[in-house]
Amino acid sequence: MKRSGAVKFPHSVQLFKFCQKVMMHQKGTKVRDQEVGSILNFNPSDCSHWKRGEKNVRSVFALAKLAEALGVETSLIHDITSGQADLDEAFFEYTEARTFRQLKEQLQDVDTKHAFAARQRVLDFVARIQQECEFQTPPLYLPEVLRTFAFITTQPVDMLDKLSRILRVKAGQYCIQYKKGEMKAQTRMSIIKDLARILFEGERSRFPEFGPLNQQLVAYEGQMFVANLMLPRTMLLQELGKLDTRRNVITELATIFWVPKSLISYQLQDIVCETMQPIASIENLEPTATRITETADILR
User: What is the pLDDT of residues 123-137, one digit of tens each?
Assistant: First the structure.
């Protein structure tokens, strides 16, 4: 007889679906339920109970084992089990972390001078937007940013498998639709990523300061835009300098800037890689250099 009523452990259901979705993404094929359960040595009955939300998977050892098997941060698994991230938001974090790594690998084949020039163009453009929005304290509010682009509107809608998407209303006019409900950090970043695609690809001709389209660099330009618009380096370093490093600085900064943890990690790693140059050039941030060095171990 089929049971009815509320699911006893809804977050465990989300965890099961996340594990299955990640495994399918990595293998490129359909993944059976028991393949997910086998990570924790579950028999078919236990696996079925987990999938239906009748078994609560929250042991720190089980969560660590899942994170290791999937190749994701343990904190992401914890966010799912605590309800801080649903399936779509968690999968967004997973795919973004992979994208960051792939982007770094791709940049190894790009001429350094061209990459540096593209980076500087993006940073100058971002600085102009932030000045127009009078962005002085985190977090950045998206309506203020989007008002500077009259040809782009936004609309909350019911969505099944994406946090946001781009609709081309007519020539030169776009609407970014996003997942209806409470605005989460992942949805905010997804909207800005879509904005970057419109600016650097669809409507690049509107902004001659970007220069001609370079397929090797356009993904990098978009990432630089997203990271530095939502997480200005100077502001990030200032907030980092205020934090108690005995606490989880990634989580703390993600809350302050209202962005995904994966983006915090990316921006801090980028700073760590250039510690000598950036920190030496920013006044009154000497104590932060020590914080950056301490944080490096967390990020590796």
Answer: 999 999 999 998 989
